[in-house]
């Protein structure tokens, strides 16, 4: 996605750090990647149609998140409608494709608790927008802050720190 740029995650734009809750709620941050989830879902849709899958899944979250427009329930519903209008399978009625977003209405704490319940090795995960060269999270970007708050609220120790 670096070919498009336009985001602190895909271009030479500094990742914001140490922002207050008020700052993060103001506007869509520079870490928003233009059309990222549209692209992911489009690729998944093409593959789903080829293999005859009736659902595609995406891990967006609309509660404890940075305000990205392509994480909202309205976007997911609209993409599902598009998927059924823009595919041969949808037009011919071979199947009705569903877009599933199981994390969408969960808090970060709920997600952490569910991961623990499922036995996910959380030491293999991080959410950082600006990790160092070795992959260690910065602990200061919006995503690291949201992760920390989620682990704290779930009363689970983050194995990544």
Keywords:
161 residues; globular; single chain; 6 helices; two-stranded parallel sheet; mainly alpha
Task: Count the beta strands.
Answer: 2
Classification by helices and strands: mainly alpha
The overall pLDDT average reads: 91
Q: Which geometry do the CA atoms define?
A: globular
Number of helices: 6
Q: What is the gyration radius calculated from CA atoms?
A: 17 Å
- List segments where confidence is low: pLDDT < 50 over at least 5 consecutive residues: none
Assess the beta-strand content as a share of residues.
under 5%
Biggest beta sheet attributes: 2 strands, parallel
The arrangement of helices and strands along the chain is HHEHHEHH
Distance between the termini: 29 Å
Q: Give the neighbour order of strands across the main sheet.
A: 1-2
**Roughly what percent helix?**
25-40%
Q: Please, what is the oligomeric state?
A: single chain
Structure in words:
The chain is globular and about 50 Å long. The model has no long low-confidence stretch (mean pLDDT 91). 40% of the residues lie in helices and 4% in strands. It starts with 20 loop residues before the first helix and ends in a 7-residue tail after the last helix. It is built from 6 helices and 2 strands. It is mainly alpha-helical. It has helices spanning 21-26, 36-51, 73-85, 88-92, 108-118, 142-154, and strands spanning 55-57, 98-100. Strands 1-2 form a two-stranded parallel ribbon.
